[in-house]
Amino acid sequence: MNSCKYCEEIYQKSDRTILENGLFFANYDNHPVNNGHIKLIPKRHLNSLSEFNNLELIAMRDLLIMAKELIEKVHHPHGYNIGINEGEAAGQTVFHLHIHIIPRYYGDVPNPAGGIRNIILHK
Question: Which of 2, 24, 42, 99 matches a 20 to 30 Å C-alpha distance to 58?
Fold first, then answer.
């Protein structure tokens, strides 16, 4: 086994898993941006979105819908940011590709205009 913390979670059948299908699992983010922040993690170790096969893309979509339904039921957000940090320059710290589903709420920032475009503030 490699030293990937997500691969270890899969191998150890982590009790942190809140949703799962054949190719992905999901858990709440350890450092949530907002209440209900969920990560979708492929069970196969991948480094890049381009490595997903068609079945994984379908499984990702299906689990993303399930995760949004769970967030809606528990947290009632007003919107979402959904994203991937791919590569160190993009802020990736765990090098097993994963997808963030971040619920957004009116008033959580003074002006949400631009959404993810505000990652680099001076742009």
Answer: 2
The tally of domains found in the chain comes to 1
Closest CA to 102 of 28, 34, 40, 41: 34
Query: What are the residue ranges in the chain where pLDDT is below 70?
Result: 1-2, 120-123
Could you tell me the CATH number of the domain that includes residue 55?
3.30.428.10
| Residue 100 a catalytic site member | no
Tell me what pLDDT residue 99 has: 97
Spatial distance between the Cα atoms of 67 and 60, rounded to a whole number of angstroms = 10
The residue range of the domain holding 64 is: 5-108
Q: Which of 96, 98, 100, 122 does the annotation list as catalytic? A: 98
DSSP code for 110: S
pLDDT at 122: 67
**pTM score, two decimals?**
0.92
The pLDDT value given to residue 1: 47
